[in-house]
């Protein structure tokens, strides 16, 4: 383990870092505080009921030396749950069994029942799925041991699927996953049996909106070959009573919802499709988060912002130029919201000549 690869710049764990003059325009959120910075692209963040903090690093443009890590109080990173689970490398893809290692972790979420779940799409570079790699891994937060691995079947995680984010029913028995890949869907997993199925597969609400152009600083964000970001159902949130699931395509501007009762396996797809509701007109969005206070927060990558649901629209919470692609939320025990900046626009996908590994950050703010 190389120290420079694992060191986190822990700038403000106590929340004492002042926002630099002129960098932030605040509305309904407190000052944005940089908690940590990383030498690799971060996407997910998870904060547990007792305040432990975790982050994950997908293998999109580099072969990250760690997939899931706990951010320790002294600012260092510890591979979680251990180094063996994190020892996959693209360079050793033909040597290591994909079922037993983190291959390309996209999201980490606590279930409220003492576990941290790791969502692994098994598709390095956000490209082809490695057969057998898509999985959910449950880690007991008390013992720091893997207690269950659910392999997502090939007829659920299709070739072209990208398992993006997950939310759990309050009883901890069901997981709802967005598929942001080629054919968007909501994937429903029975966490006890491990069985799953695709819901709203190909439905308009889970697909990209072809009329939407993703822009940064007023210019379309495009790859050198002219391709724009095209991510289907991406952000996901669940109401605190577990009755309503919210979701949105990243390449889209409409927030949708569906009653979770319509996501049971015995419900027909026609009935399910009829139950979809258009909740609000939003903006290009990545992460969603339903706070303990019942407020739905939404990231806004194109203008470095966070918004929140307000009736049939959104209202600005904060804007800060340091939020280069605000990605994923989590919430601390005191209500503090944590937010990663994954710098997607700074990757070699969209910036020719950019290094494979890029600097990214974790921020926090207190809602007002």
Protein described:
The chain is an all-beta fold and 368 residues long. It is globular, with a radius of gyration of 19 Å. The strands form 7 sheets. The protein has a 5-stranded antiparallel sheet with strand order 1-24-23-22-21, with no helix packed on it. Strands 2-27-26-25 form a 4-stranded antiparallel sheet, with no helix packed on it. It has a 4-stranded antiparallel sheet with strand order 3-4-5-6, with no helix packed on it. The relative contact order is 0.15. The protein has a single domain (3-365), classed as Neuraminidase. Residues 1-27 have low confidence and may be disordered. The chain has helices spanning 3-6, 269-274, and strands at residues 24-26, 33-38, 45-47, 53-56, 68-71, 77-79, 107-110, 115-120, 135-140, 145-151, 163-168, 174-179, 185-190, 196-199, 215-216, 219-220, 233-238, 244-249, 254-259, 277-281, 288-290, 296-300, 305-310, 313-320, 326-331, 337-341, 360-365.
Number of extended strands: 27
Q: Which oligomeric state applies? A: single chain
Q: How large, in whole angstroms, is the Cα Rg?
A: 19 Å
Largest sheet: 5 strands, antiparallel
């Amino acid at each position: 383990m190389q120290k420079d690869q694992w060191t986190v710049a822990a700038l403000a764990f106590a929340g004492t870092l002042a926002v630099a003059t002129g960098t932030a325009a605040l509305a309904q959120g407190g000052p944005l505080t940089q908690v940590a910075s990383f030498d690799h692209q971060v996407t997910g963040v998870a904060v547990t009921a007792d305040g432990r903090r975790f982050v994950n690093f997908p293998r999109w443009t580099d072969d990250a030396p760690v997939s899931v890590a706990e951010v320790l109080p002294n600012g260092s990173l510890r591979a979680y749950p251990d180094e063996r689970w994190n020892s996959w490398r693209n360079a050793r893809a033909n040597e290591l069994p994909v079922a037993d290692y983190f291959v390309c972790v996209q999201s980490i979420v606590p279930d409220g029942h003492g576990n941290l779940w790791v969502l692994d799409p098994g598709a390095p570079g956000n490209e082809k799925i490695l057969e057998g790699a898509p999985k959910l891994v449950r880690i007991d937060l008390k013992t720091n041991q893997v207690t269950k691995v659910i392999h997502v079947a090939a007829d659920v995680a299709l070739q072209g699927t990208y398992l993006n984010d997950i939310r759990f029913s309050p009883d901890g028995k069901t997981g709802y996953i967005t598929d942001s890949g080629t054919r968007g869907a909501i994937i429903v997993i029975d966490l006890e049996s491990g069985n799953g199925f695709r819901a709203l597969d190909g439905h308009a609400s889970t697909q990209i909106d072809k009329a939407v152009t993703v822009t940064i600083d007023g210019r379309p964000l495009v790859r050198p070959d002219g391709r724009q970001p095209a991510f289907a159902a991406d952000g996901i949130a669940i109401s605190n009573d577990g009755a309503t699931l919210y979701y949105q395509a990243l390449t889209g501007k409409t927030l949708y919802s569906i009653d979770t009762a319509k996501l049971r396996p015995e419900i027909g797809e026609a009935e399910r499709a009829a139950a979809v509701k258009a909740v609000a007109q939003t903006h290009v969005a990545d992460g969603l988060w339903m706070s303990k206070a019942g407020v739905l927060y939404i990231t806004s990558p194109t203008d470095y912002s966070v918004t929140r649901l307000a009736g049939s629209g959104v209202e600005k919470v904060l804007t800060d130029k340091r939020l280069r692609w605000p990605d994923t939320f989590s919430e601390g025990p005191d209500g503090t919201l944590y937010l990663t900046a994954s710098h997607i626009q700074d990757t070699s996908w969209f910036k020719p000549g950019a290094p494979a590994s890029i600097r990214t950050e974790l921020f926090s703010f207190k809602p007002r």
